[in-house]
Design brief:
Layout: H1 4-19, H2 26-40, H3 90-117, H4 124-146
Helix pairs in contact: 1-2, 3-4
Length: about 160
């Protein structure tokens, strides 16, 4: 196993020595300085996280942007007045519409299987798939409506009583 701190210290020493070479071209010097800063900066990785709302589930990893996570029956965040907490970009709206369409296609497949087999003979996986697809449809519609986007309610998206 490699001793990373020792290896890094050797790399830093080699770069510092290279900077002392007389007549070093400016472009090369800048590249060496960038590499040196990168290696030296590994000890001082810092950051901040601003969390608002509630996360239901696990959050692991690095976020370089905005992450929206909705699990179960969670609703998108809203202000106290019930208005959307923030506006969405056109890309976010397009992504959510695409996700809604995918959940609707999945639901349609499962509903066809249910109609073909009948409720007495439907496998548990079909019933479970219907429930999951309906949850996905509800979440996507809720997110879009939270952003002020009109979304049509289609037959079969909600369980009939």
């Amino acid at each position: 196993m490699t001793d990373w701190p020792a290896t890094r210290a050797q790399q830093i020493a080699a770069l510092e020595a290279a900077l002392q070479v007389p007549g070093l071209p400016e472009g090369t010097k800048q590249q060496i300085l960038e590499q040196l800063r990168a290696l030296q900066g590994l000890d001082s990785i810092q950051g901040t996280a601003t969390v608002s709302g509630e996360l239901q589930g696990n959050a692991i990893g690095v976020n370089l942007g905005t992450v929206q996570t909705f699990f179960g029956g969670a609703q998108p965040p809203t202000s106290p007045a019930g208005q959307p907490a923030r506006t969405a970009t056109p890309e976010q709206i397009a992504d959510q519409r695409e996700l809604l369409a995918a959940h609707r296609r999945t639901l349609a497949v499962y509903l066809r299987q249910l109609a073909t087999l009948g409720s007495a003979y439907v496998p548990p996986s079909v019933s479970s798939g219907i429930r999951e697809a309906r949850v996905g449809v509800r979440q996507a519609k809720s997110a879009l409506r939270g952003w002020g986007v009109e979304v049509e309610d289609l037959p079969g998206e909600e369980e009939s009583a």
